[in-house]
Amino acid sequence: MSVSREDNYTGVFDGKVGFGRNPAVVVIDFTLAYTTPGSPFFAEGVVRAVADTVPLLEAARKAGIPVIHTKVMYHPSGADGGWFVRKVPALRKLVPGEPLAEIDPKVAPLDEEVVIVKQYPSPFFGTPLAPMLATLGVDTLILAGCSTSGCVRAGALDGVQHGYRVIVPRECVGDRHDGPHDANLFDINAKYGDVVARDEVIQYLANLAKRND
Question: Which residue is catalytic, options 101, 144, 146, 151?
Fold first, then answer.
């Protein structure tokens, strides 16, 4: 007799990390490469996630918590992309001066918000994110971005390995196909953090805003 995916995980991979007291929002790679029709990376799921992240950012900014953005960009030679750009040659297009490498204006960073340039999936790998978060006293990472099965998953894995509570608002991450998207949300929620409704995160941020008034 077969059991469902959910029943198979029950009692082993169904814990919760919950929210901490000092969160930061990390918006991973919401660039025009994923939201521009005709781009090799275009994904309708990311278009929807970008739109759904706008209220999340509004709540985070109102609460006065750090908002950090990432984008992928390479030297024109591609040398800094190693085997990653050889495995995914379309990444070679993401170089300085390429409009598709820039963050979608719908979720544009404010002047005071840091934008981290990265070359690999995880927002932690080879970047200043970990020491920045430590200096800010952050204990909770709220991850938005794309793709769910790639850079978001890598951020969730590295986030828990760096000692952070990881929260993923379900509506605020996207991928190019529902299959990998859903499977990776299930896996993140089972092992690395909590996948929750966006409105639950917004309510948490609203409570923080009241606390900080």
Answer: 151
- Please, what's the b/e burial string for 10-44 (b: 16 or more CB within 10 A of its CB; e: otherwise)? eeeeeeeeebeeebbbbbbbbbbbbbeeebebbbe
Residue 172 known to be catalytic: no
Structure tokens at 80: 């800094």
Tell how far CA 84 is from the center of its chain: 19
Cβ atoms 26, 155 nearer than 8 A: yes
Tokens 């990265």 map to which residue?
118
pTM for this model (two decimals):
0.94
Angstrom distances, CA of residue 114 to CA of 27, 66, 111, 204: 11, 9, 8, 23
pLDDT digits (tens, 9 = 90+) for 151-162: 999 999 999 999
